[in-house]
Amino acid sequence: MAMLAASPTIASAHVGIGDTGGFAHGFWHPIGGIDHVLTMIMVGVLAAQLGGRALCLVPAAFVSVMVIGGAVGLAGIWIPFVQLGIGLSIVVLGTAVALGLRIMIPAAMALVGFFAFFHGYAHGADMPENVARLAYGAGFAIATALLHASGLALGLVIASKAGRRGESLVRIAGAIVAVAGGALVTGVI
Asked: What pLDDT does 121 receive?
């Protein structure tokens, strides 16, 4: 665990590359990093597995806490193990999907919120001075919500179209994501 915590390249918070002027860069940013894509998709798939009110509440919890984390990072407050938290979000959420965990909605919201804080914090802390912060943040939040929606659609469509076999496919996808997250955390990829 100490070795993982000391590794600076666990996640790919890649702000500052190219034009960081506002909404467009904020919107495209989550789509450009494998850590973001895998986490956001798994949030949506987990919500789809839980069904009901989780379809809205779990992704909304992620986006809301991500914004709070971004504000804390922007304020310059130091938080330890941010990159590890981002990397582990992929492992934990992929594992939750793979196991088909049937957790209560508040617990699912707390779980995704915990990891959302790290995602938001990293981007708030690393945000360049010259960026239109509100526009960038709005783009980032909207793209995150759209990735959640993609995960929701993926989970719902596969499970509904293929029945029990679809549920197995969703769980296998979760396992693959968890393994990919482990590879990211350990620096294998």
From this structure: 94
